[in-house]
Automatic annotation (TrEMBL):
Gene3D superfamilies: P-loop containing nucleotide triphosphate hydrolases. SMART domains: AAA (SM00382). It comes from Nesterenkonia xinjiangensis. The lineage of its organism: Bacteria, Bacillati, Actinomycetota, Actinomycetes, Micrococcales. This is ABC-type polar-amino-acid transporter. Pfam families: ABC_tran. It catalyses: a polar amino acid(out) + ATP + H2O = a polar amino acid(in) + ADP + phosphate + H(+).
């Protein structure tokens, strides 16, 4: 398979990559986590995956980036069929940025070094070039003044913003977010969501696993509700979250939006 020409982020020149998933299955032993998932994410679209823990959302995301190997089905990201046995995974991953629940920063490196290590080693950029791009992305997330600090000198929200900047230094065409605010203090969640909102507004293709229903309603073009390894309901965010049609979706949202069960209108 041929490698596409390197492209900048959507915010830089409009380049963006869509995702196509067909018949995706993933099992761990006898536990079938994904049961024939099919869905698409159009270039420049933001799709939020919602659902209870264990529904397969994070596994689906990890399959897209081939951090997990599917048992069956096909996944295409841009011009890469990521499930093809001959795909160049290193080349494919250069076009995909991923942000995890935990920040996965190197504790012994500065913020700047965390953001330059991959461009220098993978893209073979000169240190000066990598540092210049890193500062652009750190400025984008509001942390350019923290470039020389170590991760343990930052708050959780700041570390997650560094993780986003680090992913953006590779100029990805697709961003994957796996519950990026789940490990954060409530006061810092908004800062991370604001950065994600800016990326969405700039036209970045994004596939987001989240429990932040307000973010999904406001930012997502579409919401996909998953349960027990299946897509139960999908559609515009306002419809799926505001007026869900499937009983399982209704029950999930009722529990998430009103966890105490108290009638707020009483």
């Amino acid at each position: 398979m041929t490698e596409p020409e390197p492209a900048a982020t959507a915010s830089a020149d409009g380049a963006s990559a869509g995702v196509s998933i067909s018949g995706l299955h993933k099992s761990y032993g006898d536990n079938e986590v994904l049961k024939g998932i099919s869905m698409t994410v159009r270039p420049g679209e933001v799709v939020c995956l919602i659902g209870a823990s264990g529904s397969g959302k994070s596994t689906l995301l990890r399959c897209v980036n081939r951090l997990e190997d599917p048992n069956a089905g096909t996944i295409t990201v841009g011009s890469f069929e990521t499930t093809h046995p001959d795909v160049d995974l290193d080349a494919m991953r250069r076009h995909i940025g991923m942000v995890f629940q935990q920040f996965n920063l190197f504790p012994h490196l500065s913020v700047l070094e965390n953001c330059t290590i991959t461009p220098r080693r993978v893209l073979k950029q000169a240190t000066s070039e990598a540092e210049a791009e890193a500062m652009v992305q750190l400025r984008r997330v509001g942390l350019e003044d923290f470039a020389q600090r170590r991760p343990d000198q930052l708050s959780g929200g700041q570390q997650q913003r560094v993780a986003i900047a680090r992913a953006l230094t590779m100029r990805p065409q697709l961003m994957l977010f796996d519950e990026p605010t789940s490990a954060l203090d409530p006061e810092t969640v908004g800062d991370v969501l604001a950065i994600m909102r800016q990326l969405a507004e700039a036209g970045m293709t994004m596939l987001v696993v989240t429990h932040e229903m307000g973010f999904a309603r406001e930012v997502a073009d579409r919401v996909v509700f998953m349960d027990k390894g299946l897509v139960v309901e999908e559609g515009p965010a306002a419809d799926v979250i505001g007026n869900p049609q499937q009983p399982r979706t209704q029950d999930f949202l009722r529990r998430v939006l009103n966890p105490t069960g108290v009638d707020l209108e009483a």
